[in-house]
Structure formats: C-alpha cells, structure tokens
C-alpha cells in the first residue's frame, strides 16, 4: 500500500480506454455525439467543457454505469510493447470513480463505509487498509463519525478515499475538487500525482481550474456532446487550461 | 467472490443501516399493529369469526407493511448514488438483489413475529398447536412477498412516481400468492387444523418461479 492509501491492483499495470463512435441519447436529447477517443494506459486526461457538455455522461459510460446508445467501448491493457483488449467484466474491478454524488451511506460511519466497500471488492487485510485510507485522507480522527454529520469537504475526501481503496487502474473523476478546501485540494493533487506516476490512468472532468489540473498530460474539451479540442498525447495542455481560466474570469 | 458471500456482506450492511436508522421496522410494525388493533375493536370478532376473517386480515396487514418497507429499500441506495458504487463493484447483480431480499425478509419476519401474538390475543385464536406449520406458511408467504417486492422495488426505483408505481406493479402480481397464503393460514386456524399441502406447494412454486426469474433478469433490473 502506498503512503497515500491508494494501492495498485496486482496483475494489471495500466488500463487504457477507447471510445469508438460513442453516442448517448436521452429521449430527444443527445448528450454525446459520435465520440471517438483513445486514452492510453497511464495517461492523465483532463476532460474540460461547460455544464451540459457531456462530461458526466462520458464518465458514466466509461464506468460501465450506462450503456451507450450506439458505438463501442473497449478497455486495453499494455502487455510489453503491445496492447490487448480486456473484457468488460475483467476491467470492472480495475475501475474507480468519484462521481457528483458521494456514493456513501449517510447512516454509516466513515470506517463502516470503507469497510463495506473493501469487503465487496474482496480486499485482504481490510481493517488495516481502511485505517490507512482514513489517515491518508485526513479523517483518521473521524473514523467512527457518522457520514451524515460530515461537512461537504469531509464527505468529498471520504468519497475519494473510497474510490481509491481497491487500487483502481483507471480512475474516473467527475469534479473531484468540489467542496475541498485548500488543504484538501493539495492532498488531492499529491494523491493524483502519485497515482499518475504509478501508472494509473486518470480521466478527470472539471469546468473549474484547480491544482490537480496541472498534472494532466492531455486535455480534451467537450462542447455540445462533441470533442471540441484534443491536445493529443504530446500536445501542450496549457492553452486549453488557459482558455478555461479565461472562461472562469 | 461468491454470490452468497457478496449477499452476506450486503445483508450485514442492510441490518447495520436499519439498526442505525430504524426507518423500516418502526413504520411497518406500527402500521401493522394499528391495523390489527383497529379491526379488533371495530368488529370485536368471536373466535369462530376470527378463524374465517383473521387470515385475510393478517395477510393484508403484511402486504401493506411490505409495500411500506419495500419502497425505501432501493430508494435508500439512491440518496447518495450508492447504487452506482454497488454496480461498479465486482459482484453479481443477483448478489445485490439477494442481499436486499434477505434483508427485507428479515424485516418483514420480525414484523410478523411481533404481530402474531397480538393477533392471537385480540382475535381469541390459539396458535400454539399449529405453530410449526404456521411458521412454514409464513416463511413461504413472506419469501414470496419479499422476492417479488424487492424485484419491483428495483424496477420502480428509477421511476419518477415510484411511490405510486410500486403498489400498482406489486399488488396484481402478488394476488395469487396472497390467496394461497390466506388459504393455507385459514386451514391451520380451522377446526380441526390441518396444513393444506396444495396451497403450501403453490407457495413453494411461486417462490421458486419468481426467484428464478429474478436470477435470470437481475442484470436488467439493476441496470440504469
């Protein structure tokens, strides 16, 4: 286990994801239009765009929580120099997600929440892992606190700790900085940097500038359900981030 | 992870949540007791009348208690999107349903265990001699209620008017089960009491069929 409570799943070093002509329609509303995007193993992709651009829908499809209306989704693993597809069922335990909602149970304590999910993922040494995760996210002293009584920022820390508990190899983050204070943002940035350096693929959506965004190796912006811009693997992410900052100003 | 192990983990979580919040049991026990007590005072039935009308009254109370309990069952998973976390976990959809079914079964069984002695006293019915077969009928009937109820709770959880939708979906499907449960209970309260094997077999068949259907359709039920 790493010092930041995020362990790496054994067997798979890195997980990539490939959207092939993915579209999603909700009745008359088209949220995503023919998205084709290949994210290689180990990339840190910032998914940018205004509200309603389709970021959350794309992340939910990537998390296997939603089926695309058309198109295909593939997961890939790097085996030496080559890449091979990984069946969805095998990729599922390697995914981690921080969503808009906390995905936690309000009536359980922080420790009980993490213990429950650690057991569901069949992790070993659950107690030690949970304690380490809580210490790492700064909630060690509130381990027995009922989540209902937590502040927004504390919930978000716990949400992130839950998503990292099983050592995901593809981390899907939907506005992970929401509700975090300066300390929380710094902790998030350090944690994501460590995960990125450890080979974890990260796809992070945001419409606001934060410290974690500086870690991105690639930026993709969505607008109206389409890819508006993609810096590519060797592209410079700074112009897109600067444009985002400009939009905020 | 095996389905049984995952269902056990989910069951433990459900029991812990209910122990903490006491949302479901409080509502169902108070509601069912109110029905039983009010009918007892309204009609003041003799032992003979109770043997005729008591089984129907009991199962109607159980049915409404179940519908009260089943709605929050999946709604609870949706308040913070926890269902998404469950769907992302490497456990089968059937394990998710099974954990919920077992929890709902236990909650309804506890309600029934509290209700039954009150019913026996207020309706002048002796249950001691038929307790074994009565428990068998109640277990089978309650299993049917919770299997079907949990499935429809999962279906209606995504709907906008789910409070209205759940009973509308549930009651027609449960009608055959209720008839069988009432008939089997009535035969045990009759003079002389006897277990009606035909209705008991019907209850077993109902449970097996709907549990199998839940197993076959679980992926579609849990899907968004």
Q: Would you kindly provide a written description of the structure presented here, covering whatever features stand out?
A:
The complex is a heterodimer of chains A (249) and B (224). Chain A has 249 residues and is an alpha/beta fold. Helices cover 30% and strands 28% of the residues of chain A. Chain A is built from 7 helices and 10 strands. Chain A has helices at residues 55-62, 88-91, 110-120, 126-136, 152-164, 182-197, 238-248; strands spanning 15-26, 29-39, 44-48, 70-79, 82-86, 95-98, 170-174, 201-206, 218-223, 226-230. In chain A, strands 6-7-8-3-9-10 form a 6-stranded mixed β-sheet, with helices on both faces. In chain A, strands 2-1-4-5 form a 4-stranded antiparallel β-sheet. Chain A starts with 14 loop residues before the first strand and ends with a helix. The relative contact order of chain A is 0.21. Chain B is an all-alpha fold and 224 residues long. Chain B is globular and about 55 Å long. Chains A and B meet through helix 3 of A and helix 1 and helix 4 of B.
Q: From the helix content, strand content and strand pairing of chain A, which structural class follows? A: alpha/beta
Instruction: Estimate the mean pLDDT confidence of chain B.
Output: 90
| Distance N to C terminus of chain A | 40 Å
Termini distance of chain B?
Answer: 23 Å
Report the strand count of chain A: 10
The backbone outline of chain B, from C-alpha atoms, is globular
Q: pLDDT under 50 segments of chain B (min length 5)?
A: none
Counting H and I runs of at least 4 residues, what is the number of helices of chain A?
7
Structural class of chain B: mainly alpha
- What is the percent of helical residues of chain A? 25-40%
Compact overview of the structure:
Chain A is of the alpha/beta class. Chain A has helices at 55-62, 88-91, 110-120, 126-136, 152-164, 182-197, 238-248; strands spanning 15-26, 29-39, 44-48, 70-79, 82-86, 95-98, 170-174, 201-206, 218-223, 226-230.
């Amino acid at each position: 286990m790493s010092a930041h409570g995020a362990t790496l799943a054994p067997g798979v070093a890195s997980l990539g994801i490939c959207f092939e002509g993915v579209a999603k329609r909700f009745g008359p509303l088209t949220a995503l239009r023919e998205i084709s995007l290949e994210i290689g193993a180990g990339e840190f992709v910032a998914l940018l765009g205004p509200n309603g651009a389709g970021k959350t829908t794309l992340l939910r499809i990537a998390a296997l929580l939603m089926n695309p209306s058309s198109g295909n989704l593939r997961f890939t693993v790097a085996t030496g120099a080559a890449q091979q597809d990984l069946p969805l069922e095998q990729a599922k335990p390697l995914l981690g997600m921080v969503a808009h909602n906390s995905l936690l149970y309000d009536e359980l304590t922080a420790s009980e929440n993490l213990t429950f999910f650690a057991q569901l993922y069949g992790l070993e040494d659950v107690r030690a892992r949970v304690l380490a995760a809580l210490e790492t996210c700064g909630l060690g002293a509130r381990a027995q606190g009922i989540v209902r009584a937590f502040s927004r920022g504390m919930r978000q820390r716990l949400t992130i700790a839950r998503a990292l508990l099983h050592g995901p190899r593809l981390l899907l983050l939907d506005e992970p900085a929401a509700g975090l204070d300066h300390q929380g943002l710094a902790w998030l940035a350090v944690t994501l940097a460590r995960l990125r350096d450890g080979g974890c693929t990260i796809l992070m959506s945001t419409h606001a500038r934060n410290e974690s965004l500086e870690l991105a190796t690639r930026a993709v912006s969505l607008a109206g359900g389409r890819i508006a811009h993609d810096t590519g693997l060797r592209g410079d992410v700074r112009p897109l981030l600067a444009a985002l900052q400009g939009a905020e100003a | 992870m095996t389905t049984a192990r995952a269902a056990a983990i989910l069951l433990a979580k459900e029991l812990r949540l209910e122990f903490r919040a006491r949302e479901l049991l409080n509502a169902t026990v108070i509601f069912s007791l109110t029905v039983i007590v009010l009918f007892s005072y309204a009609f003041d039935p003799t032992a003979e009348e109770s043997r005729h009308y008591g089984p129907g009254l009991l199962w109607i109370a159980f049915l409404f208690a179940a519908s009260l309990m089943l709605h929050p069952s999946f709604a609870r998973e949706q308040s913070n999107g926890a269902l998404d976390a469950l769907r992302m976990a490497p456990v089968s959809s059937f394990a998710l349903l099974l954990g919920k079914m077992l929890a709902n079964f236990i909650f309804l069984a506890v309600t029934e265990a509290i209700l039954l002695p009150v019913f026996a006293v207020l309706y002048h019915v002796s249950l001691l001699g038929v307790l074994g077969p009565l428990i068998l009928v109640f277990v089978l009937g309650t299993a049917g209620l919770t299997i079907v109820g949990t499935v429809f709770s999962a279906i209606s959880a995504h709907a906008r008017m789910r409070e209205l939708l759940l009973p509308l979906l549930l009651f027609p499907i449960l009608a055959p089960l209720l008839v069988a449960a009432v008939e089997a209970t009535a035969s045990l309260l009759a003079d002389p009491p006897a277990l009606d094997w035909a209705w008991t077999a019907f209850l077993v068949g109902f449970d097996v069929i709907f549990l199998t259907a839940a197993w076959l359709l679980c992926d579609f039920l849990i899907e968004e």
